[in-house]
Design brief:
This protein has one domain: Nuclear Transport Factor 2, Chain: A (Roll). α1 packs antiparallel against α2. It contains 3 helices and 7 strands. The protein is an alpha+beta fold and 126 residues long. Strands 1, 2, 3, 4, 5, 6 and 7 form a 7-stranded mixed beta sheet that branches. It starts with 10 loop residues before the first helix and ends with a strand.
């Protein structure tokens, strides 16, 4: 009897696939492919744009709500990931027009923690 087991990706492998999808702006695909059911999404406490969410559905909703307010994206850039241990980080720079803020620039470091091939937390520094 043969049992098929899903291969658990390393942090480096998750980061590489993340980068591939990020370059195509496929953020919700990243959510579906890698976010754990108990993922945490943490923005700075004083952020006027987004806040804290916990759980895959809540984090997805947080992203959908922000995306629904975007009126234009003159520029978006995501760097290659830097990986160490069970974390990886990318630089994300965006020039956006967002309701009700108007045109904004967000330059951030996005930090991800990986466990058993899944992203268990994302934290944004901007």
């Amino acid at each position: 009897m043969t049992t098929l087991r899903k291969k658990i990706l390393t942090t480096t492998e998750v980061a590489a696939r993340f980068h591939e999808l990020a370059q195509q702006e496929k953020w919700f695909e990243i959510h579906e492919e890698f976010f754990s059911e108990n993922v945490k999404s943490i923005d700075p406490p004083e952020s006027p744009y987004m806040g804290y969410a916990e759980g895959k559905a809540a984090v997805h909703k947080k992203g959908e709500e922000f995306v629904s307010r975007i009126q234009g994206v003159p520029r978006a850039y995501t760097s290659e990931p830097i990986v160490t241990g069970n974390h990886f980080a990318v630089v994300r720079e965006m020039d956006l027009t967002v309701q009700p803020h108007g045109r904004i620039q967000i330059n951030e470091i996005m930090l991800y923690e990986v466990k058993d091939g899944e992203i268990i937390s994302e934290q944004f520094f901007y």
